[in-house]
Amino acid sequence: MEESWDFEFLSRIVDGFVSFLSEFVDDWLANDMRVSIFKILFSWLVVSLIAIHFAWRVYGNTVNDMYYRQGTGGQNGGTPDTAPHRSG
C-alpha cells in the first residue's frame, strides 16, 4: 500500500514541476514588460555571480591571507603568546 502512495506522491510532484515549467516557458516567450524586467534582473544576477567567482579566483588567496595571518601574531591578527622585548 505504501508503494502506491509513494508513486502517487512522486507523480504529483513531477506533474506540478512540469506544469510550472510549461507556464514558465510560455511566460518566457511572451513579449511582456514583466518578463523583460525579469530577464534583465536575471542576467544581472548571473553576470554578478560570474564576476564574483572570477574575482575570488584571482584575489581569493590575497584576501584569505589578509584575514588569516601566519606567524607569531596568531590567527586574525591576535596578540602573540609572549610579549616582544623592546630595546632602547
Automatic annotation (TrEMBL):
Transmembrane segments: 37-59
Any matching Pfam family: T_cell_tran_alt
Major localization listed first in the record, in broad terms: membrane
InterPro entries named among the record's database cross-references: TCTA
Compartments it resides in: Membrane
Keywords from the UniProt entry: Membrane, Transmembrane, Transmembrane helix
Any one GO CC term of the record: membrane
A biological process from GO: osteoclast fusion
Entry's family note: Belongs to the TCTA family.
Name of the protein described by the UniProt record: T-cell leukemia translocation-altered gene protein homolog isoform X3
Provenance organism: Salvelinus namaycush
Primary gene name: tcta
